[in-house]
Structure formats: structure tokens, C-alpha cells
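This section describes the prediction task in plain terms. A model, or a person checking by hand, is given the sequence of a single protein chain and must write out its three-dimensional structure as a string of C-alpha cells. No templates, partner chains or ligands are provided. The sample shown here is typical of the held-out split.
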Amino acid sequence: MTPPPPPNPCAGVTITPVAGKTHTITGQSLGTITVTSPIGSGYLYSIGGSYQPSTNFFNLAAGNYTVTAKNADSCKGTAAVTINGYGAKFYAVRTIVNGYCGPCHLNGSVSGTKNFDDDNSIVSSWDRIKARTVDGLPTFMPENGQLTALDKQKIVDWVNAGHRITD
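The expected answer:
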């Protein structure tokens, strides 16, 4: 009589990685991925190479990545993450939006019918972004103070270049 196989330590175990990301400029490696769940001792993480205890991956080029989380029993779960490649001018504007426009226009919040979680919403709102942040029409945004002259110029440069993701 053959003995039964040992129990599978991963039977009934579900690991679903959740990760945040930052994007990069096309042709550069500025992107990041940060695993936010599951975290803790006993977990290791990979984006296609060897496993590491750190939840952070840096210096990533634009592209598709598979994040793998593995527990101490070698049970694994994966999640797909895409890092977008932007034109340098849009990257600068996206960085400004991420820094100044929350919580009113980011993370699901909609103010004045605008939510800037999606890149296309920034592109389609280029004229309003310029009017509010650079020209102050009808009033300046963000509400807690005007952008610096350098940040205003980055918006103007992007608008003048064609206000596209690839600019």
C-alpha cells in the first residue's frame, strides 16, 4: 500500500499581492513598484528575478511586470503591474498634479467635475489645468497657494508642446 502524499501547505491559501507604482519617462528607468499587501516577516517578493525581503523595486523602465509574493511555505500569488512611459514634459506635469491636486482631484475624489487619477483626464483637461494653475482664471489653484514659477513654466511648456502624454 502506497502512503498518502503529504498535505499541500498551499491548499486553501490565497495570496493576492497589491502594489503601488510610479511611472517613468520613456527611455529612462525612474519607475517604482511598492508591494503594500501582503507584507510582513515570512514574505518574499519578486518582479521576475530573484526573491527579496524588501517590498520596493526601483529604477524600473516602462513596461509590464508580474509581482510575485511568496510566504514562508512557498505559497505564491501574482499581480500584474504596468509602468507607463511618459514624455518628459508630461512626466513633470503628472508629478505636479500628484503633489498638489490631492485630495480634491486624486484617489477617486472629484472636485469641479475633475478627477486626475487617470492620465487621459489630465490630457483632456489641459486647458483648465493651465487656466487655473498658471493664469488664475477664475481663481488660482491649488487653493492653499499658487504653484512656483518653475512649476507654472513646466505646465506652460507641456501645453505649448502639444499637451500629450508623449510630450
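For orientation: The longest strand covers residues 63-70.
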